[in-house]
């Protein structure tokens, strides 16, 4: 068996033709759908970026006990399991620079080898001590300009000074590295290749030829990086921001097309699996919001695309699956493809076993650490918040106390306790760290960042846009019971229940 995993960031399911999207032509995603099983009810797990990747690698939800952080000593990373059980060679190609920050520094070493492509967003890539500030101030919109040292905005402006031609764009270079791997290894057997690009994550930067079809007539400074929060821009500015997102999705579609061409040319379809998905979606003004992290986990963010080509089942080309799936199924899928056994802590199911629509779960949990706990049964979504986000009892359980950019602060660690093992930590005790409002994560991707905190219930069949929350106590009780049962199965700590006003189930200690 051989396998290619294409992981995109912030790719909106509803923009793709395979899911009914019409705003952006996506002919190569259409080609992929004709060659694979398209999953119609695929959901996120833990969010945002690195928590989502921890879920994918380990096959476990992590947001109920931990925010953005590294893989832990007790985690099971599927590339290592493949190596240990099947001697499968794994290679990671990525421009997702969060892997090299404090909060992601244990991920890339789980692969046999890796290639880091530089230059996305705030990647500390090129050094320019004294940029030409006046020119840059004229070039970039004020909301994405900064002279502040170590700011993402400043570093991004510097990086873009060195990304001039199409071949320079990090996502283009990621796929080029992927083709180099395939040229060298496609005739070998027993390998796993992950091609992962930060696009179409903001800033929405693409070569001009991809932007041209969506030209808005904008004459102002570069405007391709929306804020995380409520929409307050003028209509023409909103259109420019959206147009730049469309351009990056078009570029991703083009790069996917190159990979499909390679599969066609070398007939890889007969012996090479292909999985294509995203970590989450991105709001482009829907519900009057930009981006993610700050608001309720609407369908545009939580309901994501997924395609699977399993060479063991060529008859499934062009089929669709209505099974309820989520990101934690990625690990189980690759273990299944290579005939490896999942560890006891795994919560996911092989997507291949659900490609025919076989239902393996009654519900799917998803969320941000410190925010709502969300659950879907495939028809309804229920988003349950604590009564008061500022007063909830909240702890991080970890053995590697780092945030996205930094270690935990001494103030955070001042009142830590040693927690007994949780059900999935293989007997390891944990640091139990109280969440305080001075934590670096609190106002960035934690409780202090949320602009919505109202518990809501939606019926996706009658209200797919989630515009009209239901008042249905009987249904809410059923969804609450589903949520509580899934939390218990996940090994959630006791305060994960009490912060939501839920009874602690028997056996949770």
Automatic annotation (TrEMBL):
UniProt keywords, alphabetically: Hydrolase, Metal-binding
A Pfam cross-reference name: Sulfatase
GO cellular component, one term: cytoplasm
Highest rank taxon of the organism: Bacteria
Residue ranges of domain Sulfatase N-terminal in the record: 4-340
Record-linked InterPro entries: Alkaline_phosphatase_core_sf, Sulfatase_N
Keyword Metal-binding applies: yes
Example of a GO MF term: iduronate-2-sulfatase activity
PANTHER family with a match to the protein in the record: IDURONATE 2-SULFATASE
Name under which the protein is recorded: Arylsulfatase A-like enzyme
């Amino acid at each position: 068996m051989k396998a290619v995993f294409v992981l995109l960031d912030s790719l909106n399911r509803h923009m793709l033709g395979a899911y009914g999207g019409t705003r952006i032509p996506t002919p190569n995603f259409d080609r992929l759908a004709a060659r694979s099983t398209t999953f119609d009810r695929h959901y996120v797990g833990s969010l945002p970026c690195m928590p989502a990747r921890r879920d994918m690698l380990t096959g476990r939800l992590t947001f109920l006990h931990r925010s953005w952080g590294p893989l832990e000593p007790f985690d099971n990373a599927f590339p290592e399991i493949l190596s240990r059980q099947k001697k499968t060679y794994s290679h990671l190609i990525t421009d997702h620079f969060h892997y090299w920050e404090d909060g992601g520094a244990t991920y890339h070493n789980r692969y046999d080898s890796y290639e880091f492509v530089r230059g996305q967003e705030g990647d500390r890539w090129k050094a320019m001590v004294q940029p030409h500030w006046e020119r840059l101030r004229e070039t970039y919109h004020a909301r994405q300009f900064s002279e502040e040292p170590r700011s993402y905005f400043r570093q991004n402006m510097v990086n873009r000074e060195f990304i001039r031609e199409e071949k320079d764009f990090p996502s283009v270079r990621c796929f080029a590295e992927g083709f180099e791997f395939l040229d060298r290894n496609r005739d070998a057997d027993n390998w796993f290749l992950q091609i992962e690009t930060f696009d179409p994550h903001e800033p929405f930067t693409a070569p001009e030829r991809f932007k041209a079809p969506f030209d808005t007539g904008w004459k102002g400074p570069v405007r391709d990086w929306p804020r995380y929060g409520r929409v307050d821009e003028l209509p023409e500015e909103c259109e420019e921001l959206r147009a730049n997102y469309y351009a990056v999705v078009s570029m991703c579609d083009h790069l996917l097309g190159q990979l499909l061409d390679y599969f066609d040319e070398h007939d890889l379809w007969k012996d090479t699996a292909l999985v294509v998905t995203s970590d989450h979606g991105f709001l482009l003004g829907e519900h009057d919001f930009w981006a993610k992290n700050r608001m309720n986990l609407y369908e545009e963010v939580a309901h994501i695309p997924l395609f699977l080509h399993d060479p063991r089942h060529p008859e499934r080309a062009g089929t669709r699956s209505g099974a309820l799936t989520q990101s934690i199924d990625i690990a189980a899928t690759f273990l299944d493809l290579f005939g490896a056994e999942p560890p006891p802590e795994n919560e996911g199911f092989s997507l291949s076993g659900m490609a025919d629509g076989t239902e393996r779960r009654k519900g799917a949990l998803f969320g941000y650490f410190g925010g709502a706990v969300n659950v879907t049964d495939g028809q309804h979504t229920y988003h349950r918040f604590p009564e008061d986000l500022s007063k909830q009892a909240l702890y991080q359980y970890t053995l590697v106390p780092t945030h996205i950019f930094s270690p935990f602060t001494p103030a955070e660690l001042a009142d830590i306790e040693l927690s007994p093992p949780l059900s999935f930590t293989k007997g390891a005790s944990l640091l139990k760290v109280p969440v305080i409002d001075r934590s670096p994560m609190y106002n960035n991707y934690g409780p202090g960042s949320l602009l919505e905190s109202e518990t809501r219930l939606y019926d996706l069949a009658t209200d797919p846009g989630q515009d009209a929350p239901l008042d249905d106590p009987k249904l809410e009780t059923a969804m609450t019971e589903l949520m509580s049962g899934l939390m218990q199965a996940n090994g959630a700590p006791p305060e994960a229940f009490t912060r939501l006003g839920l009874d602690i189930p028997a056996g949770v200690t």
